[in-house]
Structures are given as C-alpha cells and as structure tokens.
Protein 1
Amino acid sequence: MPIDPYILLLLGTVGLAALLPARGTGADVASGASTAAIAFLFFLYGARLSTREAVEGLKHWRLHVTVLACTFVVFPVLGLAARGLEPVLLTHNLYSGLLFLTLVPSTIQSSIAFTSMARGNVPAAICAGSFSSLVGIVVTPLLAAALLGNSGGGFSADSLVKIVLQLLVPFLAGQVLRRWIGGFLTRHKKVLGYVDRGSILLVVYTAFSEGMVQGIWHQVSAVRLSGLLAVEAVLLAVMLTLTWYGAKALGFHREDRIAIQFAGSKKSLASGLPMASVLFGAHASLAVLPLMLFHQMQLMVCAVIAKRRAHDPEAATTPVPPVAASRIAVGTAPRSD
C-alpha cells in the first residue's frame, strides 16, 4: 500500500518537536509565524477557487448536497456515537480529536485523483471538494463550538473571532484579489504547493511543541493509540460503505457514485490542521493526531479501492478521465490535502 511521503515529513516534524520543542522567546516567534502561515494558507485557498467553476458546478446540486451531507452531517453523527468509547477505549483528549476529525471538510486533490483513477466523474469531484472546503471554513468552527464545547481547549466568542480573522477574512481577500493574481498563482503552482506544505509543517511543529512543553503526551499510551486506530478503521469502513451504497439507493450513476464515495468519505489534512491550531490552542497536538492517522489510512485504503473500481466490468466502456489522470502512479499516493 502507498505511504504518503508528506506523512513522513509530518511525523518527522512531530519528532523534531518532541526532541527540540520551541520554548520561551522561540515559542513566541513560532506561534506568530504559525498564525501568519495559517492566514496565508487560507488566502491562497481563496485566490485559487474559481467562482465561475463553482457556479457551473451548482448544476449538479444533488451530488454536492449528498457529499456535504456525508461530510457535515453523517460524519459528525458517527463521531457523537463514538462518545460511548470514552474513557474505556479513548481518553477525553483523543475523543475530542476524533470528534473534530469528523467535522473538517473533505479533500480536493486526493478526491480528484482517486475519482480519476476509478474512471468516475472528475469535474464533480473537483466541485464537490471545492464546495466542501468553502463551506467548512464557516461550518467546521460552528460545529466544533456546538459539539465540543469547552472540551477542546476553550471555545468561546474569542475563538470564533480568531476563526474569522485568521481564516475567513484571508479567504475572502483571496477571492477578491483572484482576478489580479490568479494567473500568477497558476504559473507558480508548484512553488506555492511547497509553500502550502511548509506552512502546515510549521503549524504542526508549533502545536506539538506546545503539547510537549505542557506534558500532554504523557496521557497517550500504545494501547490508547491502538484503540484510536481501530476506531478510525471502523469509521472509514462505515463511510466508504454508506457513500457507495447510499449513492446507489439515491439513483446516482456509477461515475457519480465514485465521486461521492471518494469526496464524501475523506477528511482534509490541509484544512483541518490550521483550524485545529486556531480552535484548540495548546491542546492542538492531541487534537490533530486522529486526523493525521485517519488521513494516511484513507489514502492507503482508497488507493486500493480506486484500482479495483477501474477494473470493474462497468468501467470497461468508460473512457479514462483526462483530469488528474497522471496524479496517481502505481505504488504512489496523491498529494496530501
């Protein structure tokens, strides 16, 4: 199964934070840089989203509503159902992280790549991922405030103000400036991709440094981590099953069902990590651990499913979608998102 190289970088960053956590003035500098990086990330997200493509995508509204319902209704319901596992299987902080995982938006890049590999509706996957990310900027913090309460490190009006200033305002600024900087972003897509990843690594380092300084990692044992992995495996299996057979029951064609399955069963690391840093503060390290583990799990499992879908008898007469077809090669995983 494929191992996402970026996950290895994330794990290396966690190791660096464990060995050399930022303290004192260094922690203040890292925190300030992390705040700026989060704002810049969401500015880029806004600048890259084509309003015209989003409007065109609304024509397939039933598919997008289905994906949004899976992402922001079904996933959170399953997360709430897992509350019974606390404290027998999961600690309070690990459960909070698991519940937060169920609230974040869907992915974009990997949903497109897997949909393409499985010969599904790629344009629908593009729009579904974009809509989910856009809606998640508002819905995820609101759901977190409603469902997590004070368990995630102190949700308050101040937390929501931070979300608006660090996420929503930069995103809207990117949308406004897109007409002037969109061409530049397209020409330098590869370089800006490294900026994206570097920014997220900085956010992870800052979050895990704060966790190390506060000693919260002593709360996690190998048994608890094993329990978390088992719970996430069940969560992913349930969502993959519901999105595939649920879409069939709703009357969607095979190509649309593929897009729904891959866009509706995944969670975005790129969006979730910055949001967790803003929402959880010093508790962000344990909050993002379930998301990091789930992200790698979904890549590995979906890579296998996509390859099998491509060889379904129904796929024999379906042309290979040109969009993102080269994003996945045998033995590799799509870009983290």
Note: Confidence is low (pLDDT under 50) at residues 318-333.
Protein 2
Amino acid sequence: MTLTKSPQVQGGSAAGEEQSAAGREQPARARAPLARATGLLAALLALLLVVFLSLAFGARPLSFGEAWSGLVDSGSASYTVVHEMRLPRTLLGLLAGVALGLAGGVIQALTRNPLADPGLLGINAGAAAAVVTAISFFGVAGYTGYIGFAFLGAAAVSVLVYAVGGGRGATPARLALAGTALNAALISYVSAVQLLDTASLDRMRFWMVGSLARAQDSTVVSALPFIAVGTLLALVLARPLNALALGDDAARSLGSRPARTRAAAIVAITLLCGAATAACGPIVFVGLMVPHMVRALTGPDQRWMLPYCAVLAPVLLIGADIIGRIVGRPSELQVGIVTVVVGGPFFLYFVRRRRVAHA
C-alpha cells in the first residue's frame, strides 16, 4: 500500500516552511541596520586614528606623546610643528575627503553609473580651467585666490552641463555625454594655456597633481562653508536619490520630483567638488573608488552609502597623505600621486573579484 499526503497536509507543510523562512528573514533584517551602524562606528574610529597619525608623521616624526602635547599644550616644543604645519593639512584632508567621497557617491547615484567620478561631469576640468585662467591672465597667486576662481569655474560648468544635458528633462546618459564633451574641451584649453605660458605651468604643476602640502588656516576657512553646505544638501538628498534610482515614473509615484532632485544634486556636487578641487587640486580616484567599495558594504541605499562615503573617503585621503610623507622623506610624494599608485591596483583587484563573484 502506498500512502500519500493529503492536499491539506501538503499545504500545511508549505505554509509552515514559508512561516519558518519568514521567521529567519526577520532577525536578519533586524540585524542589518545594527551591522551597518556598527560598521559606521568602526569607520569613525579609523578616521580618528588616521587624523592622529597625520599629526605624528612627517619629515620629522613625532612620538604619540609629542603629537598629543603639541596638540593640547601651547608650551610644548612640538606645538608649532603640529599647529602650523600638520593640523591645517590634516583638517584640509578631512574636508576634502568628505567632499570628494560625497560628490562621488551623489554622481554615481545621479548617473546610475557605479564607475562615475567627479571628472565625469567636467567639474574638475572646469575648476582647473578657471584657475589656469586666473594665474595666466590675472596674475592670481595663492590658494585663497584659487578657491574663488575654481569654485566659479566648477559652478559654471555644472550649470552648462545641466543645460546641455536637457535642463529639467535631463537624463543620466545626457548628463554623462555633456560632461564628457565639456571635460575634453576644457582639458585641451588647460594644456594649451600651460604650453603657451611657462610661468603658469610652473605655478600650476603642484596644484594639478593634487596636494595638501601648502594647506593653511585660511585655506581651511575658505573651503569650510562650501563643503558644509554641500555635505548637508547631499545627505538630505539620500531618500530622493533612492527614489530616482527606480526610474522617473516610479520616483514621481513615490512623491519625488526627479528634475528638482537632479538640479539639487548638481548643486551639491558643485559645492563639494568645486571647493575641494580649488583647495587641493584635482585629486582623482577618491570619488571613484570609495563609493564603489562602500556599495559592497551597505548596498545601494543612499541613506547608508553617503554617511559611509563621508567617513571612509577622508580615511583614504589622509592615509595616502601619510604614506606620501613617509615614503618621500625628507621630501614627500603628493597625495594625488599616492591615491593613484596605491588605490589603482587595489581597485582593479576589487572590480575583478566582484566580476568573478557574479560570473
């Protein structure tokens, strides 16, 4: 005799399996925010560590005790070294890292391209073109003067990209194409001016590589307002960018306004990337690699991605600056060079590993 299960038993078994699966999913979902919050706390601790290491390491290394005394005790022998040389460049690295990380995250969300970076919309090239023009034609010298021109150049290019890309009807593809075209034209202009004006080339070469070496208190103060406003705007855009990732129609059905979101995102990118590029030069790779790596940790949710980018990008930038100071003693390697040399192979390995994982 063959015994068979009744439909009721089979249905009850299936329902039990579904309930069991749902029961397993609920704790996992409950653990996900806790794991992300714990990871963000660990990233903050890593940031505090590299900030302190940046105060300790340089052409003349300080012990941790000397670095701490130089930070808090005005009578310490290391006070001048810490406050006049290392603290400004560390603070500038912190601000620039936050700006580049958030700008890269917003650009990748806006263009729906996980390999996009601030150079994709031509913002770096716009800032560079404005600074070259200021040096060559107006005799501007000093980073405080550069900041104003570079920010204006970045803002002008952002507005132009948005207009050429279709304005309120702009799409990710149009924005990327418009940015790529303007980026190529502006880079050609920068190269032409530098070749025709040797003095301009000499004054621009360290800025074009990307450096924190000439950071001053005035540079930090000049960049801070733009980066603070851009950071706040980028974080506020996290939820609308999540909606935009579903497509314009789905975003509208969720109460979002795609055109307004894109315009606000471009404003945030301009403030962040323009101020950072003006102060440090066009440092590449940070805005590309950090959001791409963070996405593997947090998923595509911008509410977690953007805070992670704001913390981990300065860890990368300040860490690269420390490496440049140690490797290049008694001189130093510019941070823009180190981010490419150190980050490039790691990023290729990361992309390759992800590709193998999805194969």
Note: Residues 155 and 270 are 6 Å apart (CA to CA).
Protein 3
Amino acid sequence: MPTTVPAYGSEAAERLASMADVTASDAALRRFLHGLPGVDAVGLQARAATLGTRSIKTTAKAYAIDLAISMIDLTTLEGADTPGKVRALCAKGVHPDPTDRSAPKVAAICVYPDMVATAKDALAGSGIHVASVATAFPAGRAALPVKLADTRDAVAAGADEIDMVIDRGAFLSGRYLDVFQEIQQVKAACARPDGTAAHLKVIFETGELQTYDNVRRASWLAMLAGADFIKTSTGKVAVNATPPVTLLMLEAVRDFRDAVGVQVGVKPAGGIRTTKDAIKYLVMVNETLGEEWLTADWFRFGASSLLNDLLMQRQKLSTGRYSGPDYVTVD
C-alpha cells in the first residue's frame, strides 16, 4: 500500500469540491446522512447469507488462502505486550510458516504507539507495514489534543498506518460534524514533513452503532472526511465484524467511488477465525466490488487468530494431512 498522500485526479477533486456544502454545517451534514437510502435489513442479511454459501475448491481454495494471509493485519494490543513479543510477532508476519518459505507475508503488524519503533526495526526491509492504533483506542474517550498527540507520536515513530476510533458517543448523539472534524484533524496529524503520510483507517465499532442505517451513515461520514480505509471494529467488544455489516460497508465504498471517484478500502476486524469464514469474505468482496479490491491495498483482515487456521489448511492442501494446532506458533 502506498503511503504518500493520495493525489486525486481532477475529476475526483471536482466531485469532492462539489460536496463541500454537505459538510459546511452540522445541519447540512445531518440532512445528507439521513437522506441516504435506508437499509433493507432483511435483504442485506439474505444477500450476505447467499454469498456465504459459495463453494471454493482445490486450486481456487489454495489461491484464496494465500490471498487471505497476504491481507492480514497481524495484531497484538494487550497491556502485557513486550518488545520481545512484538519482535516475535514480526518474525511470524515475515515467515508465517517457518517450514514453508513459499507462504506469503502478512500485510501489516499492528501495535500500540509505544511499540511502533520496535516493530519498525524488526520489519526493516521486509515490505510489511507497521500499523498503530491511536486516538485513545479502543474507547476513544480522550480530549482531542490527546488523540492528536497519540497519532503524531505513532507517525513520528514510523507508523505507516493509523487505526483511529470514532467518538461513538458523539455520533450516536447526532453530533456528526464533531466526528467529521475529528477525523479530518487526525488525518492531518498523519502527515509527515516530507509530504508523505500514514494511511488512516477509521474504526466505527459497528457493534455499538445499533442500526445498519448508522453503519451506512458512519461509512459515508468517514469517507467524506478523508478515510483511506473504513474498519468495522476494535476487536474489544462482544459484537465485531459480521458478514451483513461488512457487505453494507463494501456497498458504501462502491457507491462512494461511483459518486466521488475516490477508492477507499475496507477492513473487517474481530471474530473472523477460520479459513471458511475468510473465504466467505473474499467472495463477498469479489461479488460486490470486483477483483480490483482483492488486494491488501484495498481489503484487510483484522484477525490474528485467523492466520493459524489458514496455515493449517494450507499445510493440509500441500501435504494431504491435517497437521493440527501444535504445528503453528501460538501468538
């Protein structure tokens, strides 16, 4: 994934400029967001369920497994994280299966800001990005100056990507412009003096947004504010990524590109643990957005436990035997 500031084409820039009135005031933004088409919950769930029944076999399955591995943001976000644990996770990201060097690398290693420098050093020359959560992750309950300082610290330490959380309280209270402006300011804090910038993933915590309509509104709000990726969840609540919510977000980025000409990525996170689940999500991306989005540049999995199951299934396809969990490292 490139880490330079996106250079929008003239047509896209003009379309974005034409939507400036939408975000000119809280009232205007509310009118726009509440004017989006309502979500047909039954239809959405039925469509997600139908896509989940597609059968992928043999060669296509092997391709899907390697693709899914290459899209993983391998993550450790625990209070007990140590430099040693982070370095071990980075080593696993570079060579997920030490017995088979043909296994692809993961997309990124995601850590807290104070571990960014350690991860950056461990991944030097690997091509794997360093992602960092910021803005008082996971609750997002901090003053804006603290959130911006958190972001700048992570970027200064070398983060290629920033995963921020929106203020769900503000969003659910209808203070959409506050949320919009906060995303904009965090986006600005991702910039570096040399003109490049860390990419910004905006986390909604969809399990707390209550309705599908709110997920659609949050998606458009974040994209209008400059999000490079929209992300379902922190992985720290009871309900994280689900197929219907992810499908809704995929449809939102499709509609946003059609309307504005700007492409945005999607990252479901939390609760995706099996190869079967991962393949269902890849089918959903392909059927909704097409092959163009089937790269780590535009789709990621925030699901560290998923990697081990992908590796076990990969070994089974290669050897004909199911190795079991003792043959992969425990993070």
Note: The first helix runs from residue 10 to 18.
